[in-house]
Amino acid sequence: MAYALDHCLDTPPATAYVGVVLDSQGNLQSDLAILSSSGYAILDEAARATIQQHDFSPPAELTAYSIEVEIENYPDDCPERT
User: How is the chain split into domains, by residue range?
Assistant: First the structure.
């Protein structure tokens, strides 16, 4: 999954990993857990919201997943930080 970013940050964000549990109908069965942060709480929340809106294919049985959410389109014209 990806989340598009359209403004500069002090430090480019990392890829976030979100834990989810799906039932056999593809429904979320627990709160989403940030397993590895992007480094920005607001982007972690955006990753959560993106996943909550996703239509998952149902697994055969109750299954836990770690979903990678890349922060895309970090603007090329951002000033270089030292």
Answer: 2-72
